[in-house]
Amino acid sequence: MNKEEASYTLFQHTVIEQEQGQRIDAVLALLLDSYSRVFLRRVVQDGGVTVNGIVVKPSFKVRPGQAIEAKVPPPPEDGPQPEDIPLNVLYEDEGMLAIDKPAGMVVHPAKGNWKGTLASALAFRFQQLSDVGGVTRPGIIHRLDRDTTGVILIAKTNSVHLKLSEQFEQRTVQKEYFALAIGKIELDRDVIKLPIGPHPYQRDKMAIRKDHPQSKEAETRYEVVERFGGISAVQLQPKTGRTHQIRVHMSHVGAPVLCDRLYAGHAHISRGELLRRIARKQPSTPQDQDVLLNRQALHARRIEFTHPLTGEPMKIESPIPADMQAVMQVLRKD
What we know:
This protein folds into three domains: about 5-70, RNA-binding S4 domain (Structural Genomics Hypothetical 15.5 Kd Protein In mrcA-pckA Intergenic Region, Chain A), CATH 3.10.290.10; about 90-170, Pseudouridine synthase, CATH 3.30.2350.10; about 175-334, Pseudouridine synthase, CATH 3.30.2350.10. It contains eight helices and 17 strands. By secondary structure, it is an alpha+beta fold. Helix 2 (about 25-30) packs across helix 3. The strands form four sheets. Strands 5, 6, 7, 8, 9, 12, 13, 16 and 17 form a nine-stranded mixed sheet that branches. A four-stranded antiparallel sheet has the order 1-4-2-3. It is elongated. About 20% of the residues lie in helices and about 25% in strands.
């Protein structure tokens, strides 16, 4: 046995009744809590796991009494660098927490965004986080766009992560967003059911693509709660969770989110510009030049789910942030 082989951990387990029908990588992720499911799936793919002496694939579903043997290498150590970034914790217990994500914060490290991420802030503040999503996404179950604010759920253990992920996959998690949209919305409420796929020529955008092989079904319910001339306050409930879903759907119906650089064509708005949009008023004071909002007016206001440990219904809410409230004050006044 060489030095590299000596660093491997040999794990053995006999499948129990409660694990009947589960994928082998999911079973291993629950049993080996110090490894991510992504990492363990790769171990299975590389032939490091046998069931009753036979090498299996990650999709293999186990049956009670089967003998699992896994030869697991040390976990990688290239996760996000901890950073002392303030976090607004809306809820916390032994298995999970909910964060009120601010605007401008990227959720996890990626090309061009290695620092200042939610993942780095979580790594600094919390000793235990799930790693089902891989070492670069500690605890992160779902995501919000960089400039979208509001509630995001974080798992501390792999067990909680997998149970919450299952609720997202089964679409039993209820999400509610609040947005300010520009343009005329004809109906007070409606359902948008249009598939979303990659934009045909802009890599950072998504688009309605009905016949594209990478398109996925997408459904968004919306209701107009207030109207201000050319701007509307809208409550939205996405049934699916596609990339840029709300932004793409609202843009498609002619009412893109206010200050959405990608889909509305502008990234900030001043008080004077806001007044011109709703009442065709010209700026008359120096304050009219002040920028009220410099990011998309989209906020994840509420999330409802079943607590993965207690089975109790949960509802976590985030107040509308100050920049969007400032826009609302001008709209209501003028």
